Amino acid sequence: MAIDIAFVIEDDLHSQAEGAFATFDEALAELRLRAVLPWDQPPNQAPCAGWEGCGRHYEVVEYDVSAVPWRRLGRWSVLRIDAEGPRWTGTNP
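The chain above was modelled as a monomer; its predicted structure follows.
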């Protein structure tokens, strides 16, 4: 049985999925784009009422999508974005 893999960008602070990708590198490329966007504009603006004092904590989560429900295979903290700017937290961009 083949395992189908998806790499999902998740905002750990707000429990939001932010897109699914076929490879880790594709997810990382999306986060590189987000790192150059303003923190207070979509998609980086936090969805909470107090967004001015908040931010995003992006992680890449690897899932086996052939399982029901999906089975998590790995999780990597990658990027934090807030008023202080972008900070790569794990994987070197």
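Strands lie at 5-11, 16-21, 56-64, 71-82, 85-88.
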